[in-house]
Amino acid sequence: MKMNQNVKTVLWNQNMDHHSRYKSIGDIFYMIRVDKFSAMASSVPFTIDMGLLLICFQGEVEVGVDMQVCHLHRNDIIVVLPGQIIDQRTSSEDFKGLMMLYSTSFFTNLNFPVNFPLVMYDISKPLLSFSEEQFCLIRSYCTSVEEICDASIRPVLKNDVFKYLCMSLMYAFKDEIERFSAQQADMNRVVSKKFLRVLAANFREHRDLQFYADELHLSKKYFSVLIKNETGRTASEWIEEFIILEATKLLATTDYTIQEVSIAMNFANQSFFGKFFKRMTGMSPKAYRKSLLDE
């Protein structure tokens, strides 16, 4: 995705006339059969005011979600939350899929609990993959939802049937989302522990976040969020903590001059080191060393 492109915002329910094959329940839920990804709303990156599930029944399609490139194959589903950036890319000639769009009030109207996995889903990985058995169940629910959208029955009855079908469909996603969430939590713990190991070996020479993100094969933004969420402290705070602990140790246990400590800690000069030390401890390096002698 090219960062210099303008991102278009699409108000989906004002653009449905472009889609002759859509089915809907009011303005909170739409379903659109797609056989080419060009059926999406824009040829440039865009955001929409609704949540979106893109389900791949056949073939394959490539789409970017917040700059993550996702490759969908049969049995795969992408989850996109309102406001995320979508960058449509390419699809195979035999691609067939289904788009399901839901308004921000969709889950409220269905009375889902606020901690329901799809409501609270953290889209660090938009792509979900299902087993053949799971996907057959999801596909059957999708077909039933389409049929109720077309049914000529009283609106109140249609809304009730739709509600329970959609709840069944969403619960079909539930196990996979919870499984991924557990895996993601385990992975985040592993990554945060690896960061601390890499930091311990490199904090004297490297203080920039990009270095550590590269070492962990993560984007700088995702790396920063992961460390903060997992440890409760930012990566920068961890780096500064390692530096100040080492600096106080050198001042306390060696006869290095303050200039030599500054050099050992790879500061540009003694003045920068002194300002950093005072910001972290509330006293100058000289005052800190003197306080140790006075004890």
Q: Could you describe the 3D structure shown?
A:
- This protein is an alpha+beta fold and 295 residues long.
- Helices cover 48% and strands 19% of the residues.
- The chain contains ten helices and eleven strands.
- The chain has helices spanning 106-109, 117-120, 132-150, 155-202, 209-215, 220-231, 235-253, 258-264, 270-281, 285-294; strands spanning 8-10, 22-25, 29-34, 46-48, 51-58, 61-65, 68-72, 76-80, 86-91, 96-102, 127-129.
- The strands form three sheets. Strands 2-3-10-5-8-11 form a six-stranded antiparallel beta sheet, covered by helices on one side. Strands 7-6-9 form a three-stranded antiparallel beta sheet, with no helix packed on it.
- A hairpin with a 2-residue loop joins strand 6 (61-65) and strand 7.
- Helix 8 (258-264) crosses helix 9 (270-281).
- It is elongated and about 90 Å long.
- The termini are far apart.
- Residues 1-5 have low confidence and may be disordered.
Q: How would a crystallographer describe the biggest sheet? A: 6 strands, antiparallel
Strand content: 15-25%
Shape: elongated
Structural class: alpha+beta
The rounded Rg comes to 27 Å
Helix segment count?
Answer: 10
Order of helices and strands: EEEEEEEEEEHHEHHHHHHHH
Mean pLDDT: 79
Strand order of the largest sheet: 2-3-10-5-8-11
- Helix fraction, binned, reads 40-55%
Distance from first to last alpha carbon: 60 Å
Number of E-type strands: 11
Are there runs of 5+ residues with pLDDT below 50, and where? Answer: 1-5
